[in-house]
Amino acid sequence: MNMGAKPVSLPxxxxxxxxxxxxxxxxxxxxxxxxxxxxxxxxxxxxxxxSLSKLSENSNNREFGRKHKARGGETLDDLxxxxxxxxxxxxxxxxxxxxIRSLNPGADFSSxxxxxxxxxxxxx
Length: 124
Prior knowledge:
The protein has 4 helices and 2 strands; from the N terminus they run ααβααβ. By secondary structure, the protein is mainly α. It has a domain of about 80 residues. It has a two-stranded antiparallel ribbon with strand order 1-2.
């Protein structure tokens, strides 16, 4: 074996040329990727109810719940809009209100007192 020799390439036959041209024109198949849950694709109500359910399991869980100071005369709807913004309108009130009431016994959500602390879910 001569180390100084140049590599030799063999001439391509017709069959080899056809295979090479087919490879160039054939789209490459993509490798399937495992599905990874994406939190960005979840809707706000889904995220809200997930945190609310975790909070209802353990109301002391700081990861899923946070206390918010109410303004005088504020309703539950007003508080939710202030804390979560306009996306809070997409939360079904009938389900939400009952769970939030159970987390905040004694709170009057038709007219909250100034400075009253209300436990609400943390939406990530």
